Amino acid sequence: MPKGKGPQGKRITLKVAKNSLRVLFNGRRRLELSKMGIAVFPKCLLELADVEEIDLSRNMLRKIPNIIEKFQNLMWLDLHSNQIDELPAEIGTLRSLTYLNLCNNKLTIKGLPEELTHLRNLRILNLGLNCLETIPTTLGSLKELVELGLFDNSLTIIPKSVKKLPKLERLNVKRNPLPEFAKEEEPIDTIKRIESLYLVEKKDLCNSCLQTCQGERDELHKLEDMTPEPSDKPSFPSLTTPNSTAMDNQEEWRMK
């Protein structure tokens, strides 16, 4: 296979990385490397290992190397929408991390190292849209967790230690085969009631939002097709007709 092609994806140089560095309003420095076709964690990022935030979402990453431990100032790490199936044990050394997004990857229980529980300052953890059939009970040691996303997995049970996390405010477990969600669903209200209406131009929507809007529009059209149209023929149900002939041709009799 020729060099520079295939699974290696786009090559990120130190110059490209430096140009992707942003200073946020809170003074933190963020490496914005989202949607760049990266398949291998760029080693050149070690030259910028003192950054506080890294966005590597929407790439083609399969592995996170153990050199991630060099980023000891890291507080915010976004890895969503990659192909990651395993995290290194060294991720547990990032003790300053408060936000970790691993949504939409290929993680299983085997890909979650026990050292993940060392992230004692973690406040937001997103594991949604992965391949999890269970989660470690040891996640209950993340006492600072405020939000935990576990949606769209294959979970049949949520450990009590996780449910009882002291600061947990949001636990998203939607679309999992959990017994408590196996009850008969309430009938769907086919009448769409609009509470708020927002107008936006098509060009300002991302692909995902555009598809959602188009889908809702199609559903609305289906409802319109199901609604019976009023008859054009006038009806006179309380009309007293003088004879049977008028009763047979009520409309003609009434018009005269």
Quick recap of the structure?
The chain is globular, with a radius of gyration of 29 Å. The chain has helices at 14-19, 160-163, 207-226, 244-248, 250-255; strands at residues 21-23, 29-32, 53-55, 76-78, 99-101, 124-126, 147-149, 170-172. With 256 residues, the protein is an alpha/beta fold.
Q: How would the global form be characterised? A: globular
Question: Total helix count?
Answer: 5
What is the arithmetic mean of pLDDT?
83
- Uncertain residue ranges: 1-6, 239-247
Query: What series of H and E elements makes up the topology?
Result: HEEEEEEEHEHHH
The protein's oligomeric status is single chain
Instruction: Calculate Rg over CA atoms.
Output: 29 Å
**Spatial strand arrangement across the major sheet:** 1-2-3-4-5-6-7-8
CATH homology superfamily of one domain: Ribonuclease Inhibitor
| CATH topology heading of one domain | Leucine-rich repeat, LRR (right-handed beta-alpha superhelix)
Identify the CATH class of one domain.
Alpha Beta
What level of helicity do the residues show? 10-25%
Total strands: 8
- How much beta, percentage-wise? 5-15%
Structural class: alpha/beta
CATH structural architecture of one domain: Alpha-Beta Horseshoe
In angstroms, what separates the terminal alpha carbons?
A: 89 Å
Q: Biggest sheet, open or closed, and with what strands and sense? A: 8 strands, mixed
Protein name: LRC18 protein
Organism: Peucedramus taeniatus
InterPro entries: Leu-rich_rpt (IPR001611), Leu-rich_rpt_typical-subtyp (IPR003591), LRR_dom_sf (IPR032675), LRR_domain-containing (IPR050216)
Pfam family, one: LRR_8
